[in-house]
Design goal:
Layout: E1 2-4, E2 13-18, E3 21-26, E4 29-34, E5 38-41, E6 44-47, H1 48-51, E7 61-63, E8 78-82, E9 88-93, E10 96-102, E11 108-112, E12 119-128, E13 138-144, E14 155-156, E15 170-174, E16 180-184, E17 190-195, E18 201-205, E19 212-221, E20 227-229, E21 234-238, E22 244-245, E23 252-254, E24 262-263, E25 270-272, E26 281-285, E27 288-292
Parallel strand pairs: 1-5, 22-24, 23-25
Antiparallel strand pairs: 2-3, 3-4, 5-6, 7-8, 8-11, 9-10, 9-12, 12-13, 14-15, 15-18, 16-17, 16-19, 19-20, 19-21, 26-27
Length: 293
């Protein structure tokens, strides 16, 4: 028996329904075919064995973006990757389908997965072609934590005029145990960082700060990069006799046995140290360089 179609072979998609049943889909509608051996199109006649595609596509390449600790951002990860062109991508948690999408003509896909609770996940992705053949699954493992940490408390030791008592003020406070506390200045530079202890307390003694006014944001962040800032900035002024400040011209600056902050300002400025180079460690920092011995 022969079924005759008005268009070309490429105009139709056939799905094997099992047994001798086929589902034909084209611009002129959807037909269910039974006991049909030949298929006549405008560009030729083919047999049933040439119509039915029973070959599953290759399993997709699929992943999600995570941070260094294995957490996705928020609770709506996007599964992305490459699969057979125009395949339907299905995302599963075990046997439960969570989301689906389509690969484009080049095989690229992005499938958002919504509504995940905090926890650890191993999801799988499959590709299904136009004939209904499904690929083997590709799995991906990640963690979700969309809950920000507790708001930290923060304080700094100041004198009666609102100035720091030294050029290395000590910041302290409380927060959620295990979170990271960052001290961030008005230029968005991190001038200090530490972990909140198991007792919920933290303390940071920063590198020497130059004489200036400061407004510091105290921010707590967790392993998933969720963040919470203390209520209000810490505002203070450093005016320390231990510091040296140059002018508009070329300056030569040197410190003493204490911890100093040297600021050259304009010109070509030189910092002078008494010992050999091998006796000092020089590292880039948010304020320029930190030199220690």
């Amino acid at each position: 028996d022969t079924a005759i179609f008005g268009g070309s072979r490429a105009s139709y998609v056939f799905n094997d329904l099992g047994g001798d049943l086929l589902l034909a889909q084209g611009l002129d509608g959807t037909d269910t075919l039974s006991s049909i051996e030949l298929f006549e199109f405008s560009d030729g006649t083919v047999s049933r064995s040439q119509i039915v595609d029973t070959t599953p596509p290759a399993k997709p390449s699929a992943t999600v973006a995570t941070n260094a600790n294995g957490y996705v951002s928020g609770n709506m990860p996007v599964v992305f990757g490459i699969a057979e062109a125009n395949a339907t991508i299905k995302i599963f948690n075990g046997t439960t389908q969570l989301a689906s999408g389509k690969a484009d003509a080049n095989g690229f896909f992005n499938v958002p997965v919504t509504g995940l609770a905090n926890g650890s996940y191993t999801l799988s992705a499959t590709a299904t072609d136009a004939s209904g053949n499904a690929s083997a699954a590709t799995s991906m493992t990640f963690k979700v934590d969309a809950t920000p940490p507790a708001v930290p408390s923060a304080a700094i030791q100041l004198d009666g005029t609102g100035s720091a008592t030294s050029n290395q003020p000590v910041f302290s406070g409380s927060g959620e145990a295990g979170t990271t506390i960052s001290l961030i200045n008005s230029n968005n530079d991190v001038i200090g960082k530490t972990k909140v202890g198991a007792d919920g307390n933290w303390s940071i003694k920063v590198n020497p700060l130059a004489n200036a006014s400061y407004s510091i944001t105290v921010r707590a962040s967790d392993d998933a990069d969720n963040a919470a800032s203390a209520n209000g900035n810490l505002n203070f002024t450093v005016n320390s006799a231990l510091n040296r400040t140059g002018g508009a011209n070329n300056d030569t600056l040197s410190g003493d046995a204490a911890n100093n902050a040297l600021v050259g300002l304009g010109g070509l400025d030189t910092a002078v140290y008494a010992g050999a180079r091998a006796g000092y460690t020089v590292e880039r920092s948010t304020n320029g360089f930190t030199v220690s011995s």
